[in-house]
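Q: Convert this sequence to structure tokens.
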Amino acid sequence: GGKKKGPSYHSLFGKHFSFSGDHTESIEIQYDPKTTSYSQMLKLFWRNHDPTRCASRQYMSAIFYHNSEQKKLAEDSKEEEQKKLSRKIVTKIAPAETFYDAENYHQKYLLRQQRDILTAMNLT
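A:
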């Protein structure tokens, strides 16, 4: 989320290369509810990062929901996860807004670091 329409990576940085936007880097997941559930997706989310780590707005931990059912499931899962941790969870739960894809050179960043795989797949 953020107020700038159609943001680019460079448009969110000030003159001194410091982040000046109100956007959060995130991923958009499309899934088939016949194959997996939103609750299962939330379990993956909690299991694969540290929800207690404080970060800037750009890199904060967040769950963006699309309806009241997703909001409730996200809030309930956060409460359950908090019971397992001694540190406070800082993950924000907020309504999903317009999602903007990152520029192409930011796509598949980790894969792009694996030159051998890219070459083998004819993706270079």
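The CA atoms of residues 36 and 42 lie 11 Å apart.
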